[in-house]
Please model this.
Amino acid sequence: MNIDKEINEIVGFKHLELLATQVVEGFISGLHKSPFHGFSAEFAEHKTYNNGESTKHIDWKLFAKTDKLYTKRYEEETNLRCHLIIDNSSSMHYPALKEQGINSLNKIGFSVLASAAIMNLLKRQRDAVGMSIYSDTYEFYSSEKGSERHHQMLLAQLNNAVVASKTQVQTKTYSHLHLIAEKLKRRSLVFLFTDMFESDAEAEKLFEALQHLKYNKHEVVLFHTFDKEKELQFDFTNRPKRFIDVETGEFVNLYADTIKEQYETAVQTYFTDLELKCAQYRIKYVPTNINESFNKILTTYLVERQKFG
Model:
């Protein structure tokens, strides 16, 4: 047995589905304190009653408790199609971790657990979900389905993304988004998890690809995933360090404090420009710090789901 290999082997999540359920249950229990009070009733067997619909399936017991009209939902109903897209390039595996847990996540781990939590909500509402995972290649694609077998297969693919070791793997996100746009034939709610590490020239191509999705009438949400402490605030001790580009292998030796202010200004400008560009293209931009809770992700899902008519 290769002991070093065993020690260094990345194991990912031990119980991804259980963790996703815990995230969702905690989120739903907090809904009564939020503007979504009453919405939690919809997560299991119900949907909001709309004027003009048959009153045959109204749940009158629930009406007595909530003073709101809900109708019972049935297995064959699918009200939403959602496609999850995950950037699995080398930079998404920062910082390097052997095992992922709810309080210890890197960018890919956060994106995977957030995606699993969204899938959990979609499953409760009997909606269809599809998935794309890409790095330097188009690693995985599945169209939107709602079965339990499909759900378990997607969870396995998510965990594979965390476990797959990525070394100096660059990606051209825009090329994969064009492919995905061609594959998505029916209007869907699209969630993209990426750290947006693109060159200036590629950034323009990326927005062209996002526009391609918009042209096909999909609603697009960009979860811009980053480690705020390290990647935005450049919070490192002021000892000489070697900073290595995980996608190219290039490196620079320096003291963090000598460029901290300049770095923060440049990155903040990039984030602001990104948000403005998304607004211009009518893409929902959500800055996503991996050291915060998943509430922003799930609240965004709720808002977008309600708007998706």
